[in-house]
Amino acid sequence: MILVTGATGAVGREVARLLATAGPLRILARRPERLTVRGDGIEVVEGAYGNRPALDRALRGVDSVFLVTNSPTEPDDERVAGAAAAAGVRHLVKLSMMAVEEAGADDFITRRQRQNEEAIRESGVPWTFVRPRTFMSNTLSWAPGIRSAGVVRALYGDAPVACVDPRDVAAVAVAVLTGAGHEGRAYAVSGPDAITAREQTAQLSRVLGRSLRFKELGLDAARTALLAKYPKPVAEAFLESAERQRAGAKAAVVPTVQELTGLQARSYRTWAADHADAFAAE
């Protein structure tokens, strides 16, 4: 039995979809109505990480867990790891981030992820960390501007990043969950090449068959936009991360997708073609 969390998110949804036909699957969901993966062999437990009875129900009889957490303040990793240890879980696979292994990354989000990984190590449950680079799907945030005005607005248009398709991250996670010998290992996951926001805009333009313009945001405008959506420590972490990207810290490509799944990592062009409807003009 495998338990999947985060099954309404970009990676967790794909992990659940890939596992749905492979054997017993249980999903812990705070809002089950948002799940897109369902079936006769899928059991859904409603609950949040802070609800220990629900967490215990979800973990009962489970061999492996795929863990996704996103709260910058709640001790969700500690909660799940502690409950997993008590339930006798044999393998906990955590979705982390590549920055945790980079000495120059010291923003709030990266520090929190390092603390989360440490909490899992200390729980005694055998673990594997899947550490992806930036998701290609993050560019879905450009969709309103593309649909309404044909404009992409972003910070540092010439900063390269080896962004990765969430479907490839999910395939790596499933290989780890269903394979052997991955305990105690951490896997960095990137896309096939480094690409800038200007280049992504050009590729979206070709995929959509319409002219798109890239307009670079200034730092103050970017900060204002982030503060409108996130708490200040999180917004500042995103800005620090962008500075690291501008310095080239996110351009490295790693072969993990090919090595663990046997398939080539998808390009941004492929991701854009598969999600073109999200950017369709109004």
UniProtKB/TrEMBL annotation:
This is NAD(P)H-binding protein. SUPFAM superfamilies: NAD(P)-binding Rossmann-fold domains. It comes from Streptomyces pakalii. Gene3D superfamilies: NAD(P)-binding Rossmann-like Domain (3.40.50.720), UDP-galactose 4-epimerase, domain 1 (3.90.25.10). Residues 2-243 form the NmrA-like domain. Pfam families: NmrA (PF05368). Coiled coil: none annotated.
